[in-house]
Hints:
Chain A is built from 14 helices and no strands. Chain A is mainly alpha-helical.
Amino acid sequence: MAGQPQSIAAIGTRGGKAAGRMLDRPAFLAYLLMTPAAFIILFFVAYPFTWGVWMSLTNKRIGMPWSQVRFTGLANYIDLVARDGVFWTTFRNSLAYTGVATVVKWVLGIWLAILLNRIVKWQRLIRAAVLLPWIVPTVLSTIAFLWIFDPDFSVINWTLRRFYTWMGWGYVKGPLWLGDPLLALASVTFVNIWRGTPFFAISFLAGLQTISPDLYEAAAIDGASAWQRFLHVTLPGIRPIMIVVLVFSIIVTFADFQIVYVLTRGGPANSTHLFATYAYQVAMVGSRLGLGAAVSLFMFPFLALVIVFQLVYLRKEHA
Amino acid sequence: MANRRGLTRRRFIQLAGLTTGAAAGGGIEAILAARRAPVFAQERSLHFLLWKNFSPPADVEIVRQGDEWGKQNKVNVKIEQINANDIPARAAAALESRQGPDIIQFFHNWQNQYADSLVDVTDICSALESKYGGFIDYAKAHATLEGRFNAVPHTIVPNIYVVRASYMKAAGTTQWPKTWEELRREGKKWKANGHPIGQTVGHTFGDAVDFTYPFLWSYGVAERDEKGRVVIASKQALEALKFFKAFWDDAMDPAGTGWDDSSNNRSFLSGSITATNNAPSIYLTASNQVVLDEKGAPLVNDIRHVANPAGPAGVFHYHYSQQLAIPKYSKNADTAKEFLRWLMDKEQFTKYLRRAQAYHGAALKVYLKDAMWDMFPALKPYRDHLLEGRHVGWKGSADANAARVVQNYVLIDMLANVATGKMTPEDSLKWADGQLKSIYAA
């Protein structure tokens, strides 16, 4: 460098000022703050997703050298839709599981939230207790249900057998909770409801507490019945939180894995397979990674639709 | 030749030896005298993944053997035991990410799906064959593809019928039925007495396969012919399915559609069922835990082990093989091979079989004559039928797609569809034909 060397302090001061000016620009600061999140989304969401899409378009299997991997276009998707004997069962199961579980969790959640909102005594203890099913690790609680649903040693069937004997009605084995196709699907759905209801209830409770008591008083003075107050005050009051909770629950329930894997592994006769468990069976156990990726990607359009609905709704709310 | 910094190879070895020796024998003074940091050879390690055995003493023995060999060879042997149903996913994750256990235990012919990713162990297996004689045919078929061993055949879990003699007698059955039709007829009486036959056709790794495959073979049903063509859609298969529906309704415990591999053990030991197709684990539990029957007598005295009944095509059994494979990603493949050679040596292997209390047979035929069978005479029928097995995929080969058929429970679900009433025998057969064609065409 020609001329007098600049002092480091001077450079630092000038550089600091320049950086300060940059940070003063809201647009620059916004992008800067968003960068870490963008990287996380890029590497942990966009990259695996793109990889999954690519995989679903190939004949990739576990352990197959990349030199042998071929692009097969939509062959995996066509195989699933046109030829696979389990795919459509999985599709129906997933819709029934998500639909029934979400509706029941919603109804029970509101009911529980209203009750919790009214309880004054032992309030904290009761709220903590209600949250327990949601807090306990899913696999752990599902293993307990494995015993509850056991055909021979289930507490329910044991009680039924005792009751039958006591009544002199003879011997009864009791329902085959995990052995009958319909009951097995109902059983895994029940466990999902048991586990998910507290989340609905506590979220709705948070929404209920934001509703001003004045609104209920005004409605009561105007002669509104309890049902009308619920319809016209409670529901609109918790609607924003309700939409978020519903969307979140639908996504998580639709992509559920643990409950079915622990209880039935998709059986009996594939009656409880959901997209996640079937994708796991095809890809991880049956080693057909490409086909498994295609199974799991069938979830995407449905979930994307749910998310679009939520975004549109939230924008409308903010407008 | 001196290196760039002027240190000769000889000088390097001298210094390394001096510092190592100093650290080992001379203490801190010697290290200071050497004026170099001590050098130690890095300890080798080995990670061995296998199942949690239905015979718990076998788990204790394999860990002990790992420790013993580790100490002898200065190798840190880590033995990890998990639920058998979880092994395929663990193996898949390890093989795809190219890191994980150095030795993985596989069942049936699972590892043939990943043959390209496994180390060729033909050298070990050929040496074993030369030293001890041959492997049992189906164990060899499960461990090889095109003449190359991709895993070392280790043990075989044999499966025949385990029966409560007193329940049979109570229903007027004087001897074990010789055919499936007779079993159905007698089983109907047992079921009427509240003790049906118990059998899983659920999504589980062992018992469901052990029953389904030989049952179908005994009706002359094969999933493929010798040329590899799917031939399931046959008169014999339809006959088998129609019989199975009647058998299930008349004589079987309906809960079996939701059972896993441990359910029939619990059911038998608690006195719920008369008979079930199983490995020796029921007998061993009854014996080791001194389980008592309803009259307070040891249950083992009431247990009999008998062959599968015959179908129109004869008597068939399926005993699932277990083999040990080394993934190519392993940096310790040579160490793993050394360990497997030692593990398969007669001295170690005999101890393993005996500590497992005859729960396993061996993949090598020589062990059919082992004194172990005299130590556990009640389990001798397992040995007597050990050679009667077939490999999965029969009459075709036990290749990767045959493994996928097992892993996707296709033939098991074909029976389960009928048992649960979800499909008619005709529809279930058509469904299975479609599934098999889809898998074998891939």
